[in-house]
Amino acid sequence: MAAQARKGGISLPERRNPKKEGDGVIAKLAQSEIVIRGKQAANDAAFVTKKLMKSTGKAAWIAGTSFLILVVPLIIAMDREQQLNELELQQANILGAAPPQK
Predict the structure, then answer these.
(1) Which of 5, 41, 76, 90 is the most exposed place for a label (fewest CB within 10 A)?
(2) pTM of this prediction?
(3) How far apart are CA 36 and CA 33, in angstroms?
(4) What are the TM regions of this chain, as residue ranges (predicted)?
C-alpha cells in the first residue's frame, strides 16, 4: 500500500499582505505629510549638494590648470633672475669690484 502523507504538524499563522495601504502605525506614519516633506527636503538637499560638488570640482580644475599655466612659469623666471643676480654679485666680490648700483 502506498504511504499516505502525514497530516498535522505545526501550522504558521497567516501572513499579512504588506502591500495593504493604511495597515498599521508604521504605514500611516510613512504616509504622513511630515515624513513626505522630510523625504522631499532630503532629496532636494542631496541634489543641491551634488550640483555644488560638481561645480566646485570644475572650478578647482580651472583654477589649478590656470595656476600651472600662468603662475608657475613666472615663478621659474623670477627664480632664474634671482640666481643670475646672485651670480653677478659673487663674481663682483671675487674680482674685487664694487657691487653694481641699482
Answers:
(1) 5
(2) 0.43
(3) 5
(4) 59-78
